[in-house]
């Protein structure tokens, strides 16, 4: 491991303490020990009883302590955490921990930020959280106008990387929100991310149609004819290796995945259903377009199993590995 990686560990925000985040952080530390030092920001009282921890005062101390316990930057919360039952009293602190993590990576004290899941409605109800999720909140904290959500598989061959162009909005709002400018920005940021963080010199990007059969020549919807064909042609003329608009139903099987490095989808479920079906345990959520690396497991707070010891840490482990790899590459 490079000396920068030792000085500059991955920062993990605790997420919702009544979800599975704390127990997964403990499991991830058991998995990695000192092999991939990371720092958990949260309230030590929210970790499973018996978790070995080492309280530290700055991230650079993590590597010294990671073999003995989970390095923790303590962030006291007002209330205890009852599994599966978010306490509105804790909502503000959940948000503050994310902001503290961003501050650390923006000041170069962490190589990347890996966020444990939050419950958006619990944060909205408890603290007036005005963002649909981490993605938009992180863009706000970093002062960036447009970012892109990408979910990448770790265990699929060929791999799958999906980008929902619109994210957490009602399906009824998608046709209005999915505009030529949004597609253009999404292609640009996705291509930059694939070059910078995934090592593709000329990334191949597929674009899924909005409608069944990509509109079938206007018989099943008109957005492909109205603007998607022209916008994709224009982006291709600018040098992007783009294909589409392609029918989404035949875009995710193994042979199709060999033809692109990422696929831009029109809306959330068009992108997330295939990746979570193919690799729920190894899926990693990445925010492209930020001035720092951010990853996250692909799953949510899983209140139904929180505290039962049944949560699978594989997605968090994959997210930590990806964060460390991307952070190291950017620092090189
Ligand atoms: N990055 C983030 O902060 C994310 C947050 N969420 C939020 O999480 C909350 C709950 O969302 P849901 O749709 O219920 O999705 P979820 O991913 O929390 O749970 C869906 C199902 O998968 C299971 N599951 C999830 N993670 C698992 C794991 N590691 N091991 C074993 N089983 C697991 C759960 O038990 C549940 O049956 C929502 O508020 C949602 O917005 C959802 C996805 C990502
Ligand atoms: N469905 C993905 C998800 O909810 C993750 O959102 P974010 O918190 O990473 O913006």
TrEMBL record:
GO biological process: pyridoxal phosphate biosynthetic process; pyridoxine biosynthetic process
Record pathway: Cofactor biosynthesis; pyridoxine 5'-phosphate biosynthesis; pyridoxine 5'-phosphate from D-erythrose 4-phosphate: step 4/5
Primary localization: cytoplasm
Catalysis: reaction(s): 4-(phosphooxy)-L-threonine + NAD(+) = 3-amino-2-oxopropyl phosphate + CO2 + NADH
Subunit record text: Homodimer.
Taxonomic path: Bacteria, Pseudomonadati, Pseudomonadota, Alphaproteobacteria, Rhodobacterales
NCBIfam families from the UniProt entry: pdxA, PRK05312.1
Protein's organism: Thioclava indica
Cofactor note: Binds 1 divalent metal cation per subunit. Can use ions such as Zn(2+), Mg(2+) or Co(2+).
Name of this chain's protein: 4-hydroxythreonine-4-phosphate dehydrogenase
GO CC annotations on file: cytoplasm
Localization terms from the record: Cytoplasm
Family: Belongs to the PdxA family.
Protein function: Catalyzes the NAD(P)-dependent oxidation of 4-(phosphooxy)-L-threonine (HTP) into 2-amino-3-oxo-4-(phosphooxy)butyric acid which spontaneously decarboxylates to form 3-amino-2-oxopropyl phosphate (AHAP).
Something else known: The active site is located at the dimer interface.
Cofactors (names): Zn(2+); Mg(2+); Co(2+)
Molecular function as annotated in GO: 4-hydroxythreonine-4-phosphate dehydrogenase activity; cobalt ion binding; magnesium ion binding; NAD binding; zinc ion binding
């Amino acid at each position: 491991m490079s000396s920068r990686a030792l000085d500059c560990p991955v920062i993990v925000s605790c997420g919702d303490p009544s979800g599975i985040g704390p127990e997964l952080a403990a499991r991830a530390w058991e998995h990695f020990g000192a092999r991939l030092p990371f720092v958990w920001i949260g309230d030590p009282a929210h970790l499973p009883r018996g978790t070995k921890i080492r309280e530290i005062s700055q991230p650079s101390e993590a590597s010294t302590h990671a073999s003995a316990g989970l390095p923790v930057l303590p962030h006291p919360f007002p209330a205890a955490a009852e599994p599966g039952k978010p306490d509105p009293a804790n909502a503000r602190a959940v948000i503050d921990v994310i902001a503290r993590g961003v501050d650390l990576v923006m000041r170069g004290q962490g190589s990347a930020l890996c966020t444990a899941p939050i419950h958006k409605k619990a944060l909205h109800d408890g603290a007036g959280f005005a963002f649909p999720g981490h993605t938009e909140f992180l863009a706000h904290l970093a002062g960036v106008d447009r970012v892109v959500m990408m979910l990448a598989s770790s265990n699929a061959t060929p791999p799958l990387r999906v980008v929902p162009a619109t994210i957490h909005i009602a399906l009824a709002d998608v046709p209005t929100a999915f505009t030529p400018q949004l597609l253009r920005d999404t292609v640009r940021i996705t291509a930059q991310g694939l070059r910078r963080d995934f090592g593709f010199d000329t990334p191949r990007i597929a674009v899924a149609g909005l409608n069944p059969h990509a509109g079938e020549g206007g018989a099943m919807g008109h957005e492909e004819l109205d603007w998607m064909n022209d916008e994709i042609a224009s982006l291709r003329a600018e040098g992007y290796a783009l294909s589409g608009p392609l029918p989404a139903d035949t875009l995710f099987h193994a042979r199709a995945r060999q033809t692109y490095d990422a696929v831009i989808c029109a809306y959330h479920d068009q992108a997330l259903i295939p990746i979570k079906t193919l690799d729920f345990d190894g899926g990693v959520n990445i925010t492209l377009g930020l001035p720092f690396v951010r990853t996250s497991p692909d799953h949510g707070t899983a209140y139904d199993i929180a505290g039962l010891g049944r949560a699978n840490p594989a997605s968090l482990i994959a997210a930590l590995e990806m964060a460390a790899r991307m952070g190291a590459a950017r620092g090189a």
